[in-house]
Structures are given as C-alpha cells and as structure tokens.
Please model this.
Amino acid sequence: MNFINQVAFITGAAQGLGKAFTEALLKKGARVCFTDIQGEKGQKVESDFKGKYGQKNVLFLTCDVSSSQNLKNCFQRAVSTFGGVDIMVNNAGIVDEENWKNVININLVGALEGSMLAIEHMRTDKGGKGGKIINIASTAGLTGVFFTPFYSAAKFGLVGFHRSWASNPYIGQLGLQFGCLCPAFTDTAILYPKSKSQYDDDFKKFIGQYGVNKVETVVEAFLMLVESENCNQDIITVTAQDGIQYHYKENLKKSNL
Ligand SMILES: NC(=O)C1=CN([C@@H]2O[C@H](COP(=O)(O)OP(=O)(O)OC[C@H]3O[C@@H](n4cnc5c(N)ncnc54)[C@H](O)[C@@H]3O)[C@@H](O)[C@H]2O)C=CC1
Ligand SMILES: CCCCCC(=O)CC\C=C/C=C/C=C/[C@@H](O)[C@@H](O)CCCC(=O)O
Model:
C-alpha cells in the first residue's frame, strides 16, 4: 500500500520510534508533519528528510504535547499546510517516576488531547473526511510494572481511552478508526532514564529476561495498523519473546495481558 494523498501528524518524533514511524510513512509516499519538544534535533531531522523525501512532503514543528494551546496550534498548522490530517499518531512519551505528574500530562493527557483534536477534525458528521487515530501505548498499559507504576498508569489510561472510542457503536458513521500499538522494551533512548532508581537492578534483570525489541519490528507492527483497511479496535503487542501479535477485542479478553 502507498500513502500518496495521505497526511500524518506525529508527536514526539525527533528521535526513537516517532522518527522511525515518520520515515516509514514518508518512504510510502505520505506527507508528514512530525513534531517534538526538542526543536533543534527535530530541525536537523527535517532537513535530512526533506532532502530524501521532498521539500513539500515534510514539516517539523516544535511542539510540547503537555501544552494544549501549543498542540492545537501545531495541529492547525499541519492542516493549513497540507490541507488536512488523515492519520494522527500520539507517540510522545517519557519515563520519569519522580516527576510523575509530567508522565501523566505527557503520556496520557497529551495523547488524549491529540486524539480529541484529530476526532474533531476527522469526524464525517462534522464535515471531516474520516481518518485513523493511532495511540502508542505499551505492554505496560496492559500489565502492571512494579518499577514504573505512574508510567504504567498513564499507559493503562491510554489503552482505556482507545478501547472506549474503538467500541463506540457509531464509529463507522463517524469515519474514524482507533488502533493501538503496545510495544514492550524497545531499543531507544527511553530505556535509559536520566535519574537513578532503587529498581535499576531489577529493571536490568527484567530486560535480560524478556529481551529488547528492534525498532524495525515495532515499525513493522505500526505499518500493519496504518495499512489495514480497518484497524478499529486493534491492539498490537510487540515483544522480543513472541514478536508481533494482534489482539482483537474478543481474544484480548481471553489472553492474560
Ligand atoms: N522504547 C520502549 O521500550 C517503548 C516505548 N514506548 C512508547 O513509545 C513512545 C516513543 O518512545 P521512544 O521512541 O521509545 O522513546 P524516545 O525517548 O526516544 O522518544 C520520545 C520522544 O518524545 C519526546 N517528548 C518528550 N516529552 C515531550 C513533550 N512534552 N512533548 C512532545 N514531545 C515530547 C522526546 O523529546 C522524544 O523525542 C513513547 O510513548 C513510549 O512510552 C512504548 C513501549 C516501549
Ligand atoms: C512489561 C513492561 C514493558 C514496558 C515497556 C515500556 O514501555 C518501556 C518503558 C521504558 C523504560 C523504563 C525504564 C525503567 C527504568 C527503571 O530503572 C526505573 O526504575 C527507573 C525510573 C527512573 C525515573 O524515575 O526516571
């Protein structure tokens, strides 16, 4: 599938998974507005991507998802630059258990606000063209994680929001699809939080036991959601042990996640 005429908006995308999702969509012909709180880093990536994928297909905006106004302005800028947004990817996230209200504001509130901007823009009963809202949660949103309870709480909240919207019986009439990606540990900077914790050794043991996903595998799972004719209600997990696994509403109930 190619994404010619499709426009994506991605948060937290100057590095890591968001950057890789941005490049994967650009390679397939989409136009992408990618955003991040790290302005300088994002601008360097923008210049690289513009060279590879075309000046008119790429836009970087400095954006802090914990600021409602900043996120709204950036979303509107993407709409006015590209003529609309078809795929919203709420990806920005942090691990910072000491400053846990930031974790809730970025990982949960930021993703909910991003989703609401996309819903209002895309819903066909309000003149939109429909679209996909992909939330990047985590397996920590499906199972408790003792060393990052606040992170896990934020991701559980995001999965709950995804499931609630995805199960809305009127979703087809609104032209919306909700897909959710839940990777386990993946080889990006987030695995190395700046602050130390009493659980660092447990964390290392955990990682040693469960392994770490390659970014490419998570990108493959992401593309399964965005390329699907209808990804609504889909939750995809990616673990080093079991690889990519689809969980539809029914079999998720039966699984132990
Ligand atoms: N790498 C992993 O093991 C896993 C990551 N995830 C999720 O994937 C998403 C992406 O994380 P990674 O690429 O792994 O980590 P990363 O740390 O490389 O990327 C996160 C990005 O979010 C940005 N960001 C942080 N605060 C922000 C804010 N207030 N506004 C906008 N952008 C902000 C950062 O600048 C960074 O570019 C996160 O939501 C994370 O929770 C989920 C499961 C596993
Ligand atoms: C089965 C759970 C999979 C969860 C996968 C993720 O979403 C990855 C989360 C990313 C990083 C976690 C890092 C944890 C580090 C620990 O050492 C922690 O105790 C450190 C907390 C440091 C802090 O408060 O900033």
User: Anything to note?
Assistant: DSSP finds nine helices and eight strands in the chain.
